[in-house]
Design goal:
Layout (H helix, E strand, L loop, with lengths): L1 H6 L5 E4 L6 H8 L4 E4 L5 H11 L3 E4 L8 H4 L1 H22 L14 E7 L22 H20 L3 E6 L2 E2 L8 H13 L6 E3 L5 E2 L2 E2 H12 L7 E3 L5 E2 H11 L8 E3 L17 H7 L7 H17 L16 H13 L10 H15 L1
Parallel strand pairs: 1-2, 3-4, 4-5, 5-10, 6-9, 7-12
Antiparallel strand pairs: 8-11
The structure holds ligand F7E.
The site of ligand F7E has 22 residues, from helix 7.
């Protein structure tokens, strides 16, 4: 997002939380032009100071605990950051702009964008999902996003603020964190192809998602803030694929067959799953002229190629170039817990190739 806004001539400020945040160095390498200021979604005062200091024309709230399984492990924190964090940003804008129930914003008001999520649709009432589809979130993350969504709408209606939500479906790129399934698979393919690993352990392979390219989606966010009226839009491709489809494409890019390497592991099955999501982005196309450019196949190809290149060139940060090495602690904690609970020799650890090898061993043993 910051990269796109910089190319559009914006002066971009990024909020950084904590002391010695390990992402700062990586951010500076990637986006030298972005000016970093301190602030935390858990701290109202810091947000007011940040808005006062920067005096922004536009505020994009993309911050969240965004890894869905983490939201069960730390449900309260997810509510605080992903849900109440939206309230704190809106309040900072409202207070700094001097808006109250009796005083509406004037011209040149700060425009606010909230990153709402297709996870709010959860157990879907209809397919594809539009701006009118009711929400039925299936995780603490989805519930927190629904709170932020309705609050953004409420500040628009209560105070006349230019506040909009983009209901974005899964958006991916080679910069995606290694805990999310697209990147986990592209990295997995690269590691297997280059001989670092033989297996890739995944959860529910039949889940279906509407996966698009993040680079296309950032244009939609900026477009939404550039309109005369604040309106919420669904942003997605309108095409859905299963995790199995994703595996098919990703492994084919490296001339591999996923059935030889993928193990289903109960550690990655969620307490409540969102089975299928598919966007109807026709309102965004008709009203603001937004359309995705990159296809699913191109996206998967790009991600696998990027990870093959990263690992072949000795990239030591194999997990996440803009995140924490080793992926998300939440995922590893869940995986480790399940692995500890599982007996040694559990068949869920075995790939199709392992089973074929075992069958061969058995046959040889019997001869
Ligand atoms: O899972 C299944 C998993 O973690 C996609 C976030 O950006 O998009 C993202 O949420 C699907 C799920 O993304 C593994 O069960 C199978 O059905 O990549 P994901 P997500 O949960 O859809 C929405 C729009 C957001 O707002 C979120 O912030 O893939 N799956 N096996 C797996 N998923 C993961 N992570 N790891 C697996 O091993």
């Amino acid at each position: 997002m910051a990269e796109y806004l910089t190319t559009q001539g914006y002066e971009v400020f990024g909020l950084v939380r904590g002391q010695r945040n390990p992402r700062v160095r990586q951010l500076r390498q990637l986006l030298g032009d972005v000016r970093l200021i301190r602030g935390d979604l858990l701290d109202q005062g810091s947000l007011i100071s940040a808005v006062e200091r920067v005096q922004p024309d536009e505020v994009y709230n993309l911050a969240a605990i965004s890894y869905v399984p983490m939201s069960w492990a730390q449900a309260e924190l997810t509510g605080e950051v992903t849900g109440l964090g939206v309230l704190r940003v809106l309040e900072a804008i409202r207070v700094c702009s001097g808006i109250s129930a009796s005083r509406s914003p004037g011209r040149g008001q700060i425009r606010f964008y909230q990153a709402s999520s297709s996870e709010m649709f959860g157990m879907v009432r209809e397919s594809p999902q539009t701006e009118q589809t009711p929400f039925h979130p299936r995780s603490p993350y989805g519930v927190a996003k629904a709170y932020g969504h309705f609050l953004t709408q409420n500040y628009r209606e209560s105070y006349g603020m230019f506040a909009v939500s983009g209901i974005l479906f899964n958006h991916e790129s080679p910069r995606r964190g290694a805990e999310f399934v697209t990147r986990k698979i592209s990295l997995g393919v690269a590691k297997i192809k280059l001989g670092y690993e033989r297996q890739l352990r995944l959860g529910n392979l039949s889940a279906r998602r509407d996966w698009g390219f993040a680079g296309d989606y950032v244009c939609a966010m900026a477009l939404m803030l550039g309109q005369d009226e604040p309106v919420d839009y669904v942003i997605g491709t309108g095409v859905t694929h299963s995790v199995e489809d994703l595996l098919d494409h990703a492994f084919k890019v490296a001339d591999l067959d996923w059935r030889d390497h993928v193990v289903t592991d109960a550690a990655f099955i969620r307490p409540a799953e969102v089975d299928k999501l598919c966007a109807d982005p026709s309102a965004a196309r008709d009203k603001i002229g937004w359309e995705p450019k990159m296809t699913f196949e191109e996206l998967v190809g790009m991600m696998v190629e990027a990870d093959l290149e990263l690992l072949s060139s000795g990239g030591d940060r194999v997990a996440d170039p803009v995140g924490e090495p080793g992926g998300h602690p939440g995922e590893h904690e869940l995986a480790n817990r399940a692995a500890q609970e599982r007996p040694v020799g559990d068949p869920r650890h075995r790939t199709a190739a392992d089973k074929r090898r075992d069958a061969g061993d058995q046959e040889r043993g019997q001869q």
